[in-house]
Amino acid sequence: MSEQEKIVTACLIIIGNEILSGRTQDANLGFLGRRLNEEGVRLAEVRVLPDSMEVLVPAVQEVSRRFDYVFTTGGIGPTHDDITVDCIAAAFEVPVIEHPEARRILEEYYGDGLTPARLRMARAPSGASLVPNPVSGAPGLRIENVYIFAGVPRIMQAQFDAIAHELSGGAPLLSESIAVSLPESVVAGGLAEIQLQHGNVEIGSYPFQKGGRFGTTLVVRSVDGQALRAASEDIVALVTALGGDLDSSVA
Amino acid sequence: MSEQEKIVTACLIIIGNEILSGRTQDANLGFLGRRLNEEGVRLAEVRVLPDSMEVLVPAVQEVSRRFDYVFTTGGIGPTHDDITVDCIAAAFEVPVIEHPEARRILEEYYGDGLTPARLRMARAPSGASLVPNPVSGAPGLRIENVYIFAGVPRIMQAQFDAIAHELSGGAPLLSESIAVSLPESVVAGGLAEIQLQHGNVEIGSYPFQKGGRFGTTLVVRSVDGQALRAASEDIVALVTALGGDLDSSVA
Predict the structure, then answer these.
(1) What is the ipTM of this complex?
(2) Are the beta carbons of A77 and B43 separated by less than 8 Å?
C-alpha cells in the first residue's frame, strides 16, 4: 500500500442519555460516515455514551489516542446536563475558560437576550479554537484532534461542512453496490472465493427482503478504482452464472 | 440506595461496516434501549464497530467485563463477512464448533435447501446456548453474559423477546416527559436548581423546534416514583412561573 493510500480514521462519540434510552434516534452517524468518506477519512468506530463525566473523560482520552480524528455530538447547550466542554477539558487536562470570541459571537447573536444560561455556551477548554455555527450562533470547538459539535443534525452538519477542508484525508474509499435477486446463502460460496482472489477490496453482503422475495446487496469497497471494477465484474459474472438477476431497482 | 435499586447495565455492540459507512441506518439501538429499561436493565453504552476480528475481540473482552450484559447485532449470516461467532469465541478463548441443536434447527427449517453456506449458521462458540429465532430459523447464541443476535430488526426483536425473561434487572428507570413552550436557555437556571434539590432524579433537557417556535422537552428519570413526581411538580411550577405553557401535543 503506497503512502497516499494510508487509512485515516475517525471516531464519533454521540453523547446523550436520550439516545441510549431510545427516546431519540441519532441522525448524525449516517451523515458523518458518508461525508468523512468523501474527505478520505474512514469512520472506524462510534460510541454512544451517557451524560457522565466518569464515562466520557477516559473514553475521550482513549479514542483521541487511537484515531486520527474524534468528533463529539451533543451536550453543548445552555442547561445543567450539557457537560461535554467540561469532559473534554478534563480529558486534555486543561481548565475551562470563557472564550472571548465565542462570547462576542453570542453577544452579537442574542443581543439583549444573552442570559447567563446562554453565556455558558461561550465556555471552552483552554486552547480550543472555534468551529463556526451558521445556524444558531453558539460555536462548536476544536481542541487537538477532537471536534466538538452540536447534537442537532442541522447544526452539526453545518459545523462539519465548515471544517471539512481542515481534514487531511487519505484516498477516499470507493464503493459499488450490486443488488441481486438471490438469497445470501446462494452467493456465499462464490463470493468467498472472489474475496480471496481480490485481497485489496472488501466485499460486504447484506440481505434484503422485497415483495416477499429475498435478495442480497453486495457492496464492494476499495481505495483502488481498478481493483474495485475487477472484483465487481467477477461478482456480476458469478450472479449471472447462478441464474440471478441484477436488480437495478434497489440502490 | 437499597439493594433492589442497584443499577444493572448493558452494552450493545452493533457490528457492521455498512452502518459505519452510512449506507444502512441502525434500527436496533432504540428498541433495545426501551425494552431493556422495561426489564430494569440500563443500556449504558453502545459501540458501532467494523467487521474486523482485530477490533471486535478486545472490545468484547472489555465490555463483557465492564457491563452486566452485552448484546451484539449483526454479522451472523452465511457469508464470508459474517465473523461475529469467530470473534466472540476468540474473545472467550474457546473454539468454534458446529452446534448439534442449531444444525438440527437449520435442517428442519431449510430441508434440502441446507447448503454449506447456510450450515455456517450452525457454528457457535463452544459452550454457547441457543437463542430461538422464530422468524428465520438460524438461532442466536448466548455465551457467558454475551447475547449474539441477528442484525435484521425483526429477527433481533424476536430474539430479544425470547430471552427477556432471563435477564435479572434492577428497578426499572421511570421517566416523565414534559414539553414546554420555552427555549432551553430560559428554563436552564431554574432547572439546574431543581436538579440540585432532587439528587435522586436525573433531569434531561432537549430543545425542539416546532412551527418556527423553540420549545424544550424536559425528561425526568428516576427509579423512585415518588421522587420522580416531586421533581416533575417542581418543574411544572417553574414553567408556570416563567409564563410558559405545557405543550401536551408533544409526547
Answers:
(1) 0.91
(2) no
